[in-house]
Amino acid sequence: MNHRPITEDDLHAYVDLALEPERRAEVAAYLDEHPEIAKRIGAFSDQRDALRAALAPIADEPLPAELNLSRIIEQRARRPSIARWAVAAMLFLSIGGVGGWTMRGEQLASPEGLVALAQEANASYSVYAPDRVRPVEVRASDSAELVQWVSDRLHRPVKVPDLASSGYRLMGGRLVATQHGPAAMFMYDDDHGSRLVVMTRPMTSVDQNAPMTPQSQGDVAGFAWADDGLGYSLVGRAAPESLRPIANEVRKQARQI
Amino acid sequence: MNDMLLQVEPLIPALRRYARALVRNRAAADDLVQDCLERAVSRWQQRGDGSVRAWLFSILHNLAVDQFRKLAARGRHVTIDETSEGHFGEAASQEYRVMYQDVLNKLAKLPEEQRTVLLLVAVEDLSYADAAKVLRVPVGTVMSRLSRARERLQQEIEGITGASGNVVPLRSMK
Questions:
Q1: Can you give the pTM of this predicted structure?
Q2: Domain that holds residue A55
Q3: For residue A107, what pLDDT is reported?
Q4: Which of A37, A41, A116, B113 lies 20 to 30 Å from A189, alpha-carbon distance?
Q5: ipTM of this model?
Q6: Are B65 and B13 members of one domain?
Q7: Domain total in chain B
Q8: Secondary structure of chain B: what % helix, strand, coil (to 5)?
Q9: Which residue range is the domain that position B36 belongs to?
């Protein structure tokens, strides 16, 4: 006989019924020859049985109403949070009709793809664009440092779009947190105090490549798209028709990397 | 959404059992499970591709441990006296209930890290690898804690009393 030596881990796996039948037989044979160890292992098995028996009735109790999963899902979907309302609004605006209705249930729970990206860009816009003290963390004068920073964190080469031809000047940018990991946010303004945000991050699952779609919420307009696994969203408090050519410009420049 | 119901709902009784074994108070345990389910619903898309069982136990375990830390920080402990026998094994006969209560009281004397591993492995049937994920430790640590937990519980059962921390396990500490 040329057995592998029995280990302490084997003995525990024996107690936990986690061994392959062949190994189990080897351990059983070993225990037959070592009564002292067998006694200890037997005691561990008794512990396991006693604990399982003592706790089993809890799992048999009827579930209280507050642990009804369907209800938890429903309540979550109905919760009147602004974010959820925003997703619903964006969905109806962008998809509309039957498509919007049938997708609603799933999307409400956790938006994915472009919808999530647009929502995140919107949130960043709402927080940072009105900020008069420190809307950006790294200023345009240090844009090389900014590019290095966000490219490192996104694990992708990121280029800062130049929107001078559209009348917008880069103010700077920062890294922002999203549900789907870090994103780079760049902020621009024109000479009349109007600000735009371009946000980009890797797409986590769906919409690795997606055509540009309007993603507006209230008076904040936006466009989102994804190229080659990198998602982009442009948002600003402006008419969608004025933002569209700017979004096209951002996309054109990004494709030149 | 339907997929989530199918995969999560059957595991709720086990989650309740683990929570109650840890906090020993029905209302507090069910609150933890409810919190766990709400998080599971909102993070369903981000669960990764491991086992749903291990994922749910991780969420619950972290919530329970957070609560222990908060209670400990306030200098408050949920002691055995605070819980009534009614929280365990209502379906059991009186005789069994006494026996069950006894083993659970002894389990409660184990340090948290030993109790949790024993419950996850021996009662909830998590694989050693899944238990390691839930506890965020290497599998080797799961095995050494499991060994210490079993030795320690056996000493409690056999009535070898000693100050906690004054226990000599048969297996050397890893």
A1: 0.55
A2: 8-60
A3: 40
A4: A116
A5: 0.83
A6: yes
A7: 2
A8: 70, 0, 30
A9: 1-77
